[in-house]
């Protein structure tokens, strides 16, 4: 592995950094307060190629590698995790799933629009009783010959209200367990599809999170992804790649909080000197710097595995588990270093602390990552 950035990678990173600093940073606190994210910024991310980073250019994507993707995710997340999670879901869960498992007709009809940023997508797996236990799908898709009749509820769906294309996981044959699950492409304007109220969340408040309801939605047979019964495997493999994106998001949140804490430690004075000169603060910064670097190498390793065609289930789980822990622990430390100022919105770190928590929960909780890791190492 060679983690030295190429000239192309540096250009991609710098483009994402400039966009984050010039476009995302202004108004980020207001967006968090209002729980909104403006469409014009989503459109700009599409124009920059951030919405279809790894998609083949023939389908409207940027044709970049996973390494480029995590660089973009880190830079966006350092400023606004609500923006980066939109990018992550559209890339890792929706575009990847369609490109890897969809038919040519599905790619031409849906993937081209998603990858170009013309519209955004959502991935619908979680339910009131099927979070970590993804096999317990209560949403059903009954085969009616030409179409499937879709009924059920999906919870905590990122991009739920603003997406136009949804990948929905549903149970077709309960007796077959995980082998009776399928994945379907649902369009927003299909009759019987309803978007519920927006969730009032602790963090990533600018992202669009909703409950979705499906009441006798007729989904054409050609909108099933993959062979009959392949939906659970599709979901697990897609989530495995998604964990790389969320690990990069966690890394970015941690790095952003660290940079703010480091800057503050050089400006704030106490007992006659900058607080960074006090060992209590200096040692916090040393731990932050070291553990964020370790998280970055795990994220890069997972991205490298995916780009090399290696199995990345283990490395992506390790990256997400560790990076999310580092994000949570060190955003708390960033607040502590800021003291009372860390508890107010003006200094950003309190928002980052709130945003960090979700990285330990979505796309597989930390406990689920430990299951993935332990099964892998015990099997070996």
Structure description:
The structure is a single chain. With 380 residues, this protein is an alpha+beta fold. The chain has helices at 7-24, 28-34, 39-47, 66-79, 81-101, 104-116, 231-267, 279-308, 313-338, 349-358, 366-379; strands at residues 121-124, 140-143, 147-158, 165-171, 181-187, 193-198, 209-220, 224-225, 269-270, 273-274. Strands 1-4-5-8 form a four-stranded mixed beta sheet. Helix 7 runs antiparallel to helix 8 and helix 7 (231-267) packs parallel to helix 9. The longest helix has 37 residues, at 231-267.
Summarize this structure as a short list of keywords or feature phrases.
11 helices; four-stranded antiparallel sheet; alpha+beta; 380 residues; four-stranded mixed sheet
Mean pLDDT over the full residue set: 97
**Low-confidence parts:** none
> Element order, helices and strands?
HHHHHHEEEEEEEEHEEHHHH
Give the distance, in angstroms, between the N- and C-terminal Cα atoms: 22 Å
Helices, by number, come to: 11
Biggest sheet: strands side by side, in what order?
Answer: 1-4-5-8
